[in-house]
Amino acid sequence: MEDCLLSQEGVQFVLSHRRQVLGSGATAVVTLLRWQGHKAVVKKMKAETAEIFENELSFLKQLCGAGGAPELIGVSHEPPLMVLSYRGCLTLLDALQGLGLSDSLILWIGLEVVRCLHQVHALGIVHNDIKNNNVTLFIPQDETQPPQVSIIDYGLACHTGFSLGFRLAHKADRYFWIAPEVLAGGISTPYSDIFSLGVLLQRMLLFMRRHRYRSFLARVAQRAQHQDAICRPTLEEVEQQLAAGLLTLTSTPPLASPQRPNPPILPKYCYSCIHSSPPTTSRLAHCQRFGRTLKAVFHSLVAKISRC
Prior knowledge:
This protein has 308 residues and is an alpha+beta fold. The chain folds into 2 domains: 8-86 and 264-306, Phosphorylase Kinase, domain 1 (2-Layer Sandwich), CATH 3.30.200; 90-250, Orthogonal Bundle (Transferase(Phosphotransferase), domain 1). It is 41% helix and 16% strand. It has helices spanning 8-16, 50-63, 92-98, 103-122, 180-183, 190-205, 211-224, 235-250, 281-306; strands spanning 18-24, 28-35, 38-45, 72-77, 80-85, 90-91, 125-126, 135-138, 148-151, 158-159. The strands form 3 sheets. A 5-stranded antiparallel β-sheet has the order 1-2-3-5-4. It is globular. The model is unreliable at 275-290 (pLDDT under 50). Belongs to the protein kinase superfamily. GO terms for molecular function: ATP binding; protein serine/threonine kinase activity. InterPro entries: Kinase-like_dom_sf (IPR011009), Prot_kinase_dom (IPR000719), Protein_kinase_ATP_BS (IPR017441), Ser/Thr_kinase_AS (IPR008271), Ser/Thr_Kinases-Pseudokinases (IPR051681). This is Mitogen-activated protein kinase kinase kinase 11.
């Protein structure tokens, strides 16, 4: 939704209705939010992560749920937090390690990740952080139905052709899922995410039981992880390969991705009143200055990360 700035009452409502913690990382704590039969997610940022918060907020607004990205339900800048649509608490990492997924389901999940990434790239956005704990799942009881897959966490996202300014080529072993050109400070492109996708597929095949499934997925993953971005396949090629493999290995046609439900809305009093009149010249100038400031701050944060 467009006008989702939380009032003070809204912030209190959100903080008082938080339930179990779903995850905690270097930048934020993610908690399940429940009210009147509804479920959502609260992402509360930790100290000194305002730049990442504003960056992710900007891209979530642009995505509007594309690629399974969480949709904005509410946002507060003080304290910095986002209320997001619930995309499930089961990460791909959890599913692979704990559920004993079938080979065919693992292959289908791989195809759905590619489909989600295709929607992100169609908007000119590169995720830059594709890995197994940034993919969430809803697993259907009927394995003839496609799983619902979502790509989350857009804190390092950028537009195609933009550089994050990393200087981490010497730490490639630590950040093994990030494309080498991105770690070296080069520009991010869809091929950067394809490298990360290849690493993801390589991890997934380790949990397959049958050799013919593993060997098939290994061929796809190996080409996607080529050190030279030009030699990597396009996302369309990867999607075609996985769809053909799913049909050949399982005799199951790759059905369309499942529809996601519309996000719930918080009680009306939770939102601040925002007028939707067109911005004046002075407001536009302010927005432009803010954009330049945000870009400078983001570069500063990336430089700090590079020195870690």
